[in-house]
Every structure is written in structure tokens, then in C-alpha cells.
Amino acid sequence: MDASDHLPAQFNVATWFVDRHVTEGRGGAPAFHYESRVLTYGAVFDLANRTGNALRALGVGMEDRVLMLCLDAPEFLGTFWGAIKIGAVPIPVNTLMRASDYLYFLNDSRAKVAVISAPLMAEAGAILGQAPLLRHVLIAGGAAGGHLSFEEQVGKASATLDAAPTSRDDAAFWLYSSGSTGFPKGAVHLHHDMWVCAETYAKQVLGITRSDKVFSAAKLFFAYGLGNAGYFPMAVGAQSVLYPHRPTPEGVFEVLATHRPTIFCGVPTLYAGMLAVKEAEKRFDLSSLRVCVSAGEALPEEIYTRWRERFGVEIIDGIGTTEILHIFLSNRPKQARPGSSGLPVPGYEAVIVDDDGRPVPRGEIGNLRVKGDSTMAFYWNKHEKTKETLFGAWIQTGDKYSQDEDGYFWYAGRADDMLKVGGIWVSPVEVEATLIKHPAVLEAAVVGKEDSDRLVKPQAFVVLKEPADATAALAEELKGFVKDKIAPYKYPRWIEFVSDLPKTATGKIQRFKLRAR
Ligand code: 3UK
Questions:
Q1: CA 177 to ligand 1: nearest atom
Q2: Ligand 1 pocket, mutate which of 297, 352, 408, 411 (most atoms under 8 A from CB)
Q3: For labeling, which of 51, 70, 185, 416 is most exposed (least CB within 10 Å)?
Q4: CB of 267 closer than 6 angstroms to any ligand 1 atom
């Protein structure tokens, strides 16, 4: 599926996902449910136009970046679509990270304007003065402090806005992706990419239609949530429930019972947490659901089976990446092969290759390569990483896979040391570097270890300066220390004190030996 066969050369994707509903007479139809409010498609159109005009008034022009540190709330929709409509490039970032991460995003992207949901200022506020190219900050949903109020600027802007004459191949938005070493990489996505994901996975695998209502526990700042809760429903005029809070099992059950969506999207860790809620099937009515989706990390067969037994609905596992934007290998509703990642999504091709790029015999494990027209153009200012990742129309995901005789793809781990924890990247190197900052720690190595649900969580092996300090209290202190210094979801769930770490002759930690322990 090539977008160039379907879309005109001049194409602004905001007109497709936002304006089209108004020009086709669906402006009064409900689009987003947010707290107790309903935003119609007309309201989203109005908000995007006003936000686009407000950004322009602050000097944001075509190709300028706008950093978005936004909760799943109206300011996300207004900024994302408004920026795209004026030809600017919004960059939604993970709201669970630390101030130093935000400073890196601002400086790497050279964003001129940042839009920040007020509650997130507690973390981000301190570093805003350290980004030399940042000119304005808009604060949404609370006191603006010394900055500008999003609502005030947007409220006084015009609701009329013509889309900038972008190409279908212009940069539309970026998403940052973490790697095992070095800083996160900005994956540059083009105007046609979201259209491709909507036409392929959303329409042909999920079968989404106007009568669907989606709830995604994965937030809009993830590529996964951006599709699920954002542009998938907007592709067809469906409804979406926005939830700006932390998605706890109880909270998610409440949303499902109250809003009665037809499609629910989560990650394996959340499904496991929901299965641990006693009598949930008696307390909450989930009968509105026609399909549940899982991605972010492999869904263990056990979770698939228990969920279907208790709630009478299937979980469809599929793998996506930030670089490919959404899911490209997936099970199909009612034809799931539990434990596998399913088959290629229509419009995508997948092959498994050896380290020289040659296809491996069926059944053998190799590197996954994927071809599809939603793949990023490149990593911003990371030419070497781009070359390691893109091979013409193909992209190497960094995952090991095998294919069975029926063509189903089976996940076999990562090619690097990266961990997926609750569907979010954790770099062992970053956690190790943080542990070493503690005065009692000499050395540390972090690997993934399966918990009782067979889901991977970080485990740390720590060498202390004074072996006699090895106590349970110190282990707890180290966990708290990591939670304090870097994004809290990265902390090691288990700490084991050891006298030394297995290393190569050149001094590199042999994580595979620790994994085998
Ligand atoms: C891993 C999976 C096994 C795999 C994502 C849906 O997760 C998403 O994007 P990220 O960039 O991470 C990509 C990596 O995560 N992974 C994701 N899903 C699965 N491994 N089974 C799965 N079902 O290592 C992959 O390379 O955070 C998920 C839609 C869009 C996405 N960007």
C-alpha cells in the first residue's frame, strides 16, 4: 500500500482527519468524551483552527516544531491538529519522564513553542529557562504562572483557518523513541503516515466503523495510543474516550462500565492487573466490548485465555513500533493464535533475515524486517542510527522472530538489551548508570526478569563498595533512589547483591549470563 497511489501530492493530513467530518456534515456528531464533556467533530475542528491560529500568532511557521507535554485532554487535540494544519510539526512526549528528559527534547527538536498541561509543570517547570530556542510556553488547564494561558490565547484566536499547502511527504509530527544507549531518537513521520495506518490496521484488522467507541488505556503520546484513541476513530467518525488519569485496573474497569466502548486497547501488564481484580466480571459490565487489543510487549497465552474465560471477549495481540507508527503484525479477531503476533497486516510485508540480511529458513529465528508506507522518514539528526535501521523501503525493528508453517510470527526477544516494561521502553544502561550514582554502589547490571504473569520487569545485580552493607533496607533504598532520579517506571523490581559481575575480556558486562541465572 503506497500512499502516493491514493493521496494527492499536496495533502494536509489535518484536513483528512478533522475538516472532512465538518465538510461532510458530521460536525454535530460526538467525537471525544473527556471527563463529563462531549466534544463534537465540529468542536475539534473549531479547537484545531483556533490553536493553529494561536500558534501562528506566536511566530510558529511551517516546519517549526512544537513540543507537547500534554495529558489526554482537549489541549492535546487542539495542539496536535492545529500545528499540523499550519504545516508545523507537533512532538507529543511521554508525560511520565523527568525534567532532564524534557530539556533534551526541547533542545534536540529546537521547538519554538511548548504546550504543557498544567499538572505536568511540577516536573517540567524548572528546566524551561534552559532551552535557548524556546520562545513561548502555553499552559493548559491551570494557572499559567509566568507563561501564557493556552485557553486565553486559543480563545482570542480566529476559528477560521485554511490548511497550509503541505505535501503528503512533508514532516507532520515526530515521536521520540528510546534506545539502549544514547539519547532518544526523534522519529520523523510524514503527512501520509497516519492515513496509511488508518486504512490498513484500523479499517482492515480492527474493522473500525462510525458505530465504534474506543477506549485506549495507552495514552495519546504513545504511537499506540495516538492511533487507538486519536486518529483511528477520527478516520471514520467514531467516538473515543479520553482519560487524563493514571490507568489503574479499577479506574479502567470504571471507564469500561460507564462509557461502554466497543474497542478497548491496553498493554499486557494492564490486562494482568485487571485479571488480578477479584470478582471484576461481577462488579463491572463489559458486555459492550466487541474486541480488546494488546500491544507494546508480547501477550502471554495465559492472559489471553483467562481474559476470554472471565470477560467473554478476545484480546488481539499485535506488534507495532514508534518508527512504523502502528501495528504491522497482528492476530485477527476470532482467528487469534494465542502467544503469537499473528500475520502481517494488509499493506505490510514482513521477512525474517540473518545478520547479513538474507532470509532465514522457515522456523528459524532471525531479525524482523518490515515494509510499509507508514514507516518514519528518518531519525532527526541521527544519521548513523537511521542507516542502521532503514534499508530502502524496509526497516529492521530490533526484534528477533520466527515464523511457523502457517506463516504466523512468534516473538523471540530483542536483538539489543532493551526491555519493554508495561509496554514502555527501559534501557538497562540508564538504570545501571543511575544505580552507580548511589554512594554505596560500586557496579550494577540490569536485565529483564519475568514476573509471575510472565511479563518482563527490570532486575538489578549490584556490587557494593562494602559487601557488609548488603541488607534488605539498602535494596529498598536503591529502588527509591532510582525512582527519584529517572522516570519511576524504570526502577528495578528486584535487587540482588553480588560480589562481582560477569564480564568479557574487554570489560563489557555479559547480561546474557545474568539473564540465565
Ligand atoms: C515491542 C512487542 C512483542 C517490540 C507500539 C503498538 O510498542 C510500540 O512501539 P514502541 O516503539 O516499541 C516497539 C517495540 O515494542 N513490542 C511491541 N508490541 C509487541 N513485542 N509483541 C508485541 N505485540 O520490541 C517492538 O520493537 O514503544 C505498539 C502500536 C504502535 C506502537 N508504536
A1: 11
A2: 297
A3: 416
A4: no
443's grid cell: 557496579
Element (H, E) at 264: strand 263-266
* Residue 250 clears pLDDT 90, i.e. is over it: yes
DSSP 462-485: EEESSGGG--HHHHHHHHHHHHHH
- State if residue 297 touches ligand 1 by the CB under 6 angstroms criterion: yes
Confidence (pLDDT) at 166: 98
Q: Which residue has the cell 487542539?
A: 78
pLDDT for residue 452? 94
Pick from 221, 319, 402, 418 the residue to mutate for probing ligand 1's pocket: most ligand atoms within 8 Å of its CB. 319
**Residue-range domains of the chain with CATH:** 3-168 (3.40.50.980), 194-414 (3.40.50.12780), 427-515 (3.30.300.30)
Compute, in angstroms, the gap from residue 425 CA to the centroid of ligand 1.
Answer: 9
- Exposed e or buried b for every residue in 339-375, given b needs 16+ CB within 10 A? bbbbbbbebbebbbbeeeeeebeeeeebbbbbbbbbb
Q: Is 298 in the pocket of ligand 1 (CB under 6 A)?
A: yes
Amino acid occupying residue 423: G
Determine the atom of ligand 1 nearest the C-alpha atom of 411. 3
Q: pTM for this structure?
A: 0.96
d(CA 232, CA 224) in angstroms, rounded, equals 11
Q: Is 171 in the pocket of ligand 1 (CB under 6 A)?
A: no
- DSSP structural state of residue 342: B
504 pLDDT more than 90: no
Alpha carbons 16 and 12: distance in angstroms, whole number? 7
d(CA 352, CA 418): 20
φ, ψ of residue 324 in degrees (nearest 5): -90, -10
Question: Using H for helix, E for strand and C for coil, what is the string for 224-261?
Answer: HHHHHHHHHHHHHCCEEEECCCCCCHHHHHHHHHHHCC
CA distances (Å), origin 287, targets 151, 209, 218, 238, 339:
38, 18, 21, 19, 24
